[in-house]
Amino acid sequence: MSDSISSTSRRDFLKGALAAGGIVATSRLPLHARGNFEQLSLAYAHITAGAEKPFSVLHISDTHLTFANPDEDEKTQDYRRRRTELFGCRQYEALKDSIRWAKLNADYLVHTGDLVDWVSEGNMLAVQEAFGPEAGNIFGSIGNHEYFWPLKDRKPGRAECFAKCSKAYPYKLDFGSQVINGVNFVSIDDAHNDVTQGQVEAFAREVKKGLPIILLMHVPFPTPRIMEATRKYWAWNTKFRNEPPKPITFGKRGQEFVKYLKGEKLLKGILAGHQHITVEERFSPTAVQYLVAGNFAFAGREVLFT
After folding, report:
1. Which of 294, 288, 290 is closest to 48 using CA atoms?
2. What is the distance between the terminal CA atoms of the chain, rounded to a whole angstrom?
3. pLDDT tier, 85 (very low <50, low <70, confident <90, very high otherwise)
């Protein structure tokens, strides 16, 4: 993808994709689905983090955009059609509605991964268009689908996927930090169910700042209630899969990181996604882990910080 692509070109691409059936155009929706945000389904949470002044964040995850350029081969187009239908055909509309809602009603928008369903030029263009200058304050983390390619041929490597996403996404993907009203939002790439030594060391440097920390990540740390809710949602013969989900298992370094975090008093909350469910569970004496359902289904959670 070229950085020189204009916003007009992106809009033209999205209009063409909409017309081609990539996403259902809003004008074709019934009237009850075209009002101001009534299709959004929002949960709410309150985290006492020691903020300098109250603020709120709209937390979304798992949008799974499914755009592909018209010149892509038929295998890719067939995959695009199937995945678009699977996720309800309105992922881009859900993302844009969430962005608009956050700009009007919250201080920040946080996205915790799987913004795209796979790394395509069309999806990268859609991300750039959605997260333009008018989108407001945005921060987030990366998911496993940012590293995904559905077809065996022309499969890009992890580094290539990361490079493409880094150019399109408005936040750092491997590790990032954003202080909001005295609360340090730290994002980490755990898309492959583990962390690196560099990420652990970077987190330790954030702890030295002495600020309360909110951890953003895609794959949640497995806890009993979250895993039970996941099992029920992803049960055999559900809409999204025909096989039980694999248990979440972190690598050795990730397990050590979890043990460390459980004793870190500055950790005040964890925002994650991946499981397509809205659920929460106590992670440590000072932090609750919050998962949010798929943004493709117009789900989100407004989190108030005080």
Report:
1. 288
2. 41
3. very high
Both structure tokens of 23? 């996403």
Calpha distance 269→212 (Å, rounded): 9
Q: What is the pLDDT of residue 154?
A: 67
Average pLDDT over residues 86-92: 95
Query: Domain extents for the chain?
Result: 8-305
Please list, residue by residue across 37-54, b when 16 or more beta carbons sit within 10 angstroms of its beta carbon and e when fewer do: eebbebbebebebebeee
Q: Cα separations (Å) of 93 from 4, 53, 98, 190? A: 25, 32, 8, 27
Residue 146 neighbours by CB under 8 Å, 6+ apart: 113, 114, 115, 116, 119, 161, 162, 165, 173, 191
CB proximity list for 36: less than 8 A, separation 6 or greater: none
The two three-digit tokens of residue 206, written as one number: 């954030």
Whether the CB-CB separation of 292 and 59 falls below 8 Å is answered with: yes
Q: Tens of pLDDT along 146-157?
A: 998 877 676 778
What six digits make up the tokens of 68?
């592909």
Looking at residues 34-42, what average pLDDT do you find?
77
Position 23: which residue type? I
Domain 8-305: homologous superfamily in CATH: GpdQ, beta-strand dimerisation domain (3.30.750.180)
Write the DSSP string, 120-167: -HHHHHHHHHHTSGGG--EEEE--GGGG---SSTTPPPHHHHHHHHHH
> What does the pLDDT read at residue 30?
41
Q: 227 exposed, middle or buried (CB, 10 Å; 0-12, 13-18, 19+)? A: middle
Tokens read off for 80: 């695009």
Q: Which two structure tokens, joined as six digits, stand for 266? A: 């500055």
Q: To 10 degrees, what angle do helices 91-105 and 121-130 make?
A: 20
What's the distance, CA 10 to chain centroid? 21
Report d(CA 70, CA 147) in Å as an integer: 22
Mean pLDDT over all residues of the chain? 87
